[in-house]
């Protein structure tokens, strides 16, 4: 056995940093690497032994043979130091003197054996999965691939290891120190039933905003600017749902065409705010800027929900780049097929994270908790959530991921939204997620679109969607707000394009118009795209009013998309994921046009109406039963004859539906324990192109009504309309919604 002195000499040799200049490495004097701690993972600046300041580095790398920490100075010179401490497959060490702002990465050694899933390659600098900030951009030259990307025989290219150094070509992690305790922040904590969600893109929302200073447009600071916040407040939304803000990379096929990934569904850093959205700097400043944005939105009463992509990463499949997890432990982080060279792909993006593995599950939950506790966010929308809920193969609502979320004391208290499907077999799971979760309800989207283009065979589907989708969510204690109702989202046509195009027009994407869905359920009103026909233009604006009114009167949680409230267009592109330009950016000049300003005013008025009236945002499903001797029920459906719908009426072809919402018997109590009472409303939705005579129902439903909203009109009266006696026949114009309040 060697002596203690010999052991200390070996440890000192291993801990001596190694400098790499122009591809030549040599040992140089430097601070020793002390043992440090295996937790927390990542790079954490702290005070170490004897009061010495430095940074603790910890990396899970199961199966690795060695891990080198790589430090970079301002000139890009690299210094390497081996992490010799290994605890439960976590390599760790404390480096004295390493301060916030230090750029770093890892090189991980192991066996190159793609046939068994091993893709270790120390020539590739790897991003720390726990990096709090990232400096630089992924541009994907051949050097960043673990294999020889341009190998002549592409069918075996992934098996040929590339020995070129990737460090000059990839971003670096940044050591960040932030002791913000959020003591001055007040979370809005808006109840689910009271929520109105507004999906927006950090860059696209402010890139053309005239009230935001030029240097702040397209950034977190731009979204925090009073001019941007003021629009959200005037509109009345309670939460913004931000398209991905985790650090992401651009796909090679886009870069080759001179395009970039605009939406950001290609994550590579689950703790780092995307650096390109920062106005203040990228060596840690982006963290503080993001927090200031959250504070500004919270101060305005607006929650922040992040659209997160934990189902896959930017490393794609076997022919994708080696940026982080693939080079740390490929077979530990990713689901592989029985042929371990290949990836199980439930996402359509080349790979799927192996969420059933404890260290991968820890990565995801650590990331989620970080964004809640240290970055101040209020919830998450999970992209392709069904992929996260898969156990070994099938989607499993008792999966480790869902179980961990359900018992986590932090995560179970924030807003959780599932995109309840993936692209794998059995991946469509709308209505199946457990309590605590809400879901994007695509059946609502399809029904609303089909109704207003007069393509539904009857009104059964529309009745379910208007009243909270009880057929999907009335189980296990779930509530109507389990349904996030939406008609448009980032993926697909904008609302204006939905009524202006019958076919997608994605030529700008460079994929021969083959990308994007063909199932748009749209109707152009009689002309494809822009037209000078004033009748077509007026019809389209009316259809927009119909769609927005339907959405904001429906039971459930409404979600709007930025700019839909004043006619934003993507020129018929229904897959603008790679359009970082005027196609995707919100055009604020539309608000200067009277017709589009009127649409904004109607949307804001409808949201305000929703906030004022609890009958429009119920916390429990309708019973459809009478709760009093006069026979008045909480929900009733009427034909145009003013009679209640029979079973036969539900199955008969129809374009008109009357929905009565009683404000008398709203379940639950207010904050002081008093019963909740409200006005009652009758909504008449008519999708036919000809006017229809509708008889207003009499007692016990009402004695009189007054019109609150009439979507056949460009301008809406703020004051209540003229009282109409029950039994009156009102003419509902073609393709219109009438909302009537029951008058006292």
TrEMBL record:
<dbReference type="InterPro" id="IPR014756">
    <property type="entry name" value="Ig_E-set"/>
</dbReference>
<keyword id="KW-0378">Hydrolase</keyword>
<feature type="compositionally biased region" description="Basic and acidic residues">
    <location>
        <begin position="505"/>
        <end position="518"/>
    </location>
</feature>
<keyword id="KW-0326">Glycosidase</keyword>
<feature type="region of interest" description="Disordered">
    <location>
        <begin position="505"/>
        <end position="531"/>
    </location>
</feature>
<dbReference type="InterPro" id="IPR006047">
    <property type="entry name" value="GH13_cat_dom"/>
</dbReference>
<comment type="similarity">
    <text>Belongs to the glycosyl hydrolase 13 family.</text>
</comment>
<protein>
    <submittedName>
        <fullName>Isoamylase</fullName>
        <ecNumber>3.2.1.68</ecNumber>
    </submittedName>
</protein>
<dbReference type="Pfam" id="PF02922">
    <property type="entry name" value="CBM_48"/>
</dbReference>
<dbReference type="InterPro" id="IPR013783">
    <property type="entry name" value="Ig-like_fold"/>
</dbReference>
<dbReference type="InterPro" id="IPR044505">
    <property type="entry name" value="GlgX_Isoamylase_N_E_set"/>
</dbReference>
<dbReference type="GO" id="GO:0019156">
    <property type="term" value="F:isoamylase activity"/>
</dbReference>
<feature type="domain" description="Glycosyl hydrolase family 13 catalytic">
    <location>
        <begin position="199"/>
        <end position="610"/>
    </location>
</feature>
<dbReference type="InterPro" id="IPR011837">
    <property type="entry name" value="Glycogen_debranch_GlgX"/>
</dbReference>
<dbReference type="InterPro" id="IPR013780">
    <property type="entry name" value="Glyco_hydro_b"/>
</dbReference>
<dbReference type="InterPro" id="IPR017853">
    <property type="entry name" value="GH"/>
</dbReference>
<dbReference type="InterPro" id="IPR004193">
    <property type="entry name" value="Glyco_hydro_13_N"/>
</dbReference>
